[in-house]
Amino acid sequence: MPMVARRLRDPDINPCLSESDASTRCMDENNYDREQCSTYFLKYKNCRKFWNSIMVQRRQNGVTPSMPTAAERDEILGAMGKMPY
C-alpha cells in the first residue's frame, strides 16, 4: 500500500476515518449514485470542519501535534457528551 494511502488509513492521522469508510461503502452499495449518499458526505464534511477547527486552535495555542491523537479525540468527544457533527 502506498505511503499516502497508509496515512489516510491511520486513525491517528485521519480523524474522520469511519465517516470516510461509511461514504465509500454507501457509494459501493448504491451503484455510485451520489444523491443517495448525500447524508454520508455531509457527515464527513462536518467531521473535517470540526477537526480542522480543533487543529487550528491547537496550532494557535502552540500545542503539538496540532491534530490530536485518536485517544485524545475520544476524550474530547467524551467530554462533549455527543458527536458535534
Automatic annotation (TrEMBL):
Localization (cell): Mitochondrion intermembrane space
Keywords: Disulfide bond, Mitochondrion
GO cellular component: mitochondrial intermembrane space
Primary localization class, coarse: mitochondrion
Pfam families, per the entry: COX6B (PF02297)
GO biological process, alphabetically ordered: mitochondrial respiratory chain complex assembly
The UniProt record lists the keyword Disulfide bond: yes
Family per record: Belongs to the CHCHD7 family.
Name under which the protein is recorded: Coiled-coil-helix-coiled-coil-helix domain-containing protein 7
Origin organism lineage: Eukaryota, Metazoa, Chordata, Craniata, Vertebrata
